[in-house]
């Protein structure tokens, strides 16, 4: 059979190549004829760097006692660093090296964004004597101490596209710090238009920023209202008392069913308020919660698996080509076990919400409180989990992506 000859033309290819060489010559000629002082800077990247400067080294320039157990720390950036821009209501993630081990903690910013332009940022902390980090801070942070943090993060800020013009902030204890930032900011920004703070404390002495908040409320011509509510009042207290229940919200907020709620406070208050919001029929999209960090004692959760309280498992941790096996208590989150072993991954919210610590669970079983399960459905399908809110329920093999 006569063989058919394939007809192949390469003329187009050479033509293309020739055209490309011609283009190179033309391009060179254009460059040579152009302005030699052309601005080659990447303005978008510069702006992004300014807005999100990454790790910031700052110095403590002042420490103020707010109550017997609460202090405000004022940071100014060290040379070569700049403070991050943020929305009032957000937090930063502070990094500590305690006895050679890195740990991180999220702390709400108590100053307002306008203060950043003046060169300072504040956080206000309450001492938790049984805690790991605040006793260390009380002992070690002095004027002049260098601190390391990044941020800002969190969803606890007002946004015109999702929140109502009148916002009700429910604060418990040191949860007021984020609301102080919003109150300071709204004096010049109108974000939000009206802000009612229901502020629960145990005793009058425990109310942080009381005089300052009263002063700001007086100056705001009705835009800011602050209502302290004491659970253990003295006899001469004439204000509101008890817990911030559905009934009290109805009494104190006339338009209670038309407002957005921001919640910032201790974990017990979040769980309690879930039930009160349900009684009021408030839809979830109108409730914004500041992340509350780690759970102090997870065994108090009625959902914690019974019988696991005293167990210790082994976690095999892979960081790239590195592999180590560490002990892990069933009552410590995976992140806490990693930190105890000196393998701290970078974390931000420590509440399971932001996804910063997202890691791969290769084998084993974990448990999370449903309220702290912020893992996206698609991530779950591929085996990802958030070690900051997950407790080991068996031996685990995990792969951790980021490390401090
Ligand atoms: S640090 Fe935010 S999810 Fe773990």
Shape: globular
Note the total helix count. Answer: 10
Helix content: 25-40%
Report the mean per-residue pLDDT as an integer. Answer: 91
CATH fold group of the largest domain:
Rossmann fold
SS class? alpha/beta
Q: Give the DSSP E fraction (strand runs of 2 or more residues).
A: 25-35%
Give the domain tally. Answer: 3
Instruction: Please identify, by name, the CATH architecture of the largest domain.
Output: 3-Layer(aba) Sandwich
Unreliable spans? none
Hetero groups? FE2/S2 (inorganic) cluster
For the termini, the CA-CA separation is 73 Å
CATH class of the largest domain: Alpha Beta
- The name of the CATH superfamily of the largest domain reads Nucleotide-binding domain of ferredoxin-NADP reductase (FNR) module
Number of strands: 19
User: Largest sheet at a glance?
Assistant: 6 strands, antiparallel
Cross-sheet strand order for the largest sheet = 4-3-6-1-2-5
Detailed description of the structure:
The chain is globular, with a radius of gyration of 27 Å. It folds into three domains: 49-153, Elongation Factor Tu (Ef-tu), domain 3; 166-289, Nucleotide-binding domain of ferredoxin-NADP reductase (FNR) module (Rossmann fold), CATH 3.40.50; 312-400, Beta-grasp domain (Ubiquitin-like (UB roll)), CATH 3.10.20.30. The strands form four sheets. It has a six-stranded antiparallel beta sheet with strand order 4-3-6-1-2-5. The chain has a six-stranded parallel beta sheet with strand order 10-9-8-7-11-12, covered by helices on one side. The protein has a five-stranded mixed beta sheet with strand order 14-13-19-15-17. Strand 7, helix 5 (176-189) and strand 8 form a beta-alpha-beta unit. It has helices at 11-33, 43-51, 113-117, 134-140, 176-189, 210-219, 246-252, 267-280, 334-340, 377-381; strands at residues 56-67, 70-77, 91-98, 101-108, 121-126, 146-153, 166-172, 194-201, 224-230, 240-241, 260-264, 287-289, 312-319, 322-329, 359-363, 366-367, 384-385, 391-392, 396-400. It is α/β, with parallel strands linked by helices. It contains ten helices and 19 strands. The N and C termini lie far apart (73 Å). Residues 347-350, 352-357, 374, 386, 388 line the site of FE2/S2 (inorganic) cluster.
């Amino acid at each position: 059979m006569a063989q058919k000859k394939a007809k192949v033309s390469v003329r187009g290819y050479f033509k293309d190549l020739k055209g490309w060489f011609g283009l190179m010559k033309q391009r060179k000629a254009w460059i040579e004829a152009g302005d030699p002082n052309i601005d080659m800077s990447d303005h978008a990247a510069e702006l992004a760097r300014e807005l999100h400067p990454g790790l910031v080294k700052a110095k403590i320039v002042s420490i103020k006692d707010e109550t017997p157990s609460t202090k405000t720390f004022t940071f100014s950036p060290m040379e070569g660093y700049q403070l991050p821009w943020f929305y009032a209501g957000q937090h930063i993630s502070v990094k500590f090296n305690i006895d050679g081990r890195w740990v991180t903690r999220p702390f709400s910013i108590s100053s307002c964004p306008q203060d950043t332009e003046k060169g300072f940022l504040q956080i206000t902390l309450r001492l938790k004597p049984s805690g790991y980090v605040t006793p260390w801070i009380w002992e070690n942070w002095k004027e002049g101490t260098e601190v390391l943090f990044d941020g800002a993060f969190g969803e606890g800020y007002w946004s015109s596209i999702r929140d109502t013009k009148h916002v009700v902030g429910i604060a418990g204890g040191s949860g007021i710090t984020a609301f102080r930032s919003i109150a300071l900011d709204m004096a010049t920004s109108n974000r939000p238009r009206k802000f009612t703070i229901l502020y629960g404390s145990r005793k009058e002495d425990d109310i942080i920023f009381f005089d300052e908040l009263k002063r700001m409320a007086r100056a705001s011509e009705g835009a800011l209202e602050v209502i302290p509510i004491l659970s253990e009042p003295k006899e001469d207290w004439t204000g509101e008392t008890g817990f911030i229940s559905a009934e009290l919200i109805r009494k104190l907020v006339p338009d209670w069913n038309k407002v957005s709620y921001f919640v910032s406070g201790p974990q017990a208050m979040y769980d309690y308020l879930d039930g009160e919001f349900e009684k009021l029929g408030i839809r979830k999209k109108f409730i914004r919660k500041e992340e509350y960090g780690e759970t102090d004692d997870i065994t108090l959760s009625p959902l914690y698996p019974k019988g696991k309280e005293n167990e210790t498992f082994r976690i095999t941790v892979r960081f790239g080509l590195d592999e180590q096996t560490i002990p892990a208590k069933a009552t410590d989150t995976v992140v806490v076990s990693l930190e105890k072993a000196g393998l701290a991954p970078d974390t931000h919210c420590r509440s399971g919400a932001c996804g910063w610590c997202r890691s791969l669970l290769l084998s084993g079983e974990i448990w999370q409180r449903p309220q702290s399960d912020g893992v996206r459905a698609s991530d779950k399908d591929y085996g990802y989990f958030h070690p900051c809110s997950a407790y080991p329920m068996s031996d685990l093999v995990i792969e951790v992506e980021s490390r401090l």
